[in-house]
Prior knowledge:
Layout: H1 2-18, H2 27-45, E1 50-52, H3 55-62, E2 75-77
Antiparallel strand pairs: 1-2
Helix pairs in contact: 1-2, 2-3
Protein name: Mycothiol-dependent maleylpyruvate isomerase metal-binding domain-containing protein
Organism: Litorihabitans aurantiacus
Amino acid sequence: MLTRLVELVVHADDLSRSVPSVGLVDPTARTIVSRALFEVLRERSGVDHLEVLDERDWVRLATGRTAWADRGRALRPGDLAEGLPELGSHLPLL
Length: 94
């Protein structure tokens, strides 16, 4: 079920970028997908001091719609003193 929700959110976001006047992504679905993808990143990278700052940007980054170099406000370090680690080798997740 979760994989279908990921597909729905990602493709709805793709469509909303093509047709900006239509906001097709359900916020609750995006939150569920964002959290699931973030957990995959944590498991694969071993990095646990990150927070999702912008769910939409994070889903785009995690699914390859945005490159690591263009990550914008997707993630932030939980401890600002540690900074954001280089995660480009772990992304995209899908």
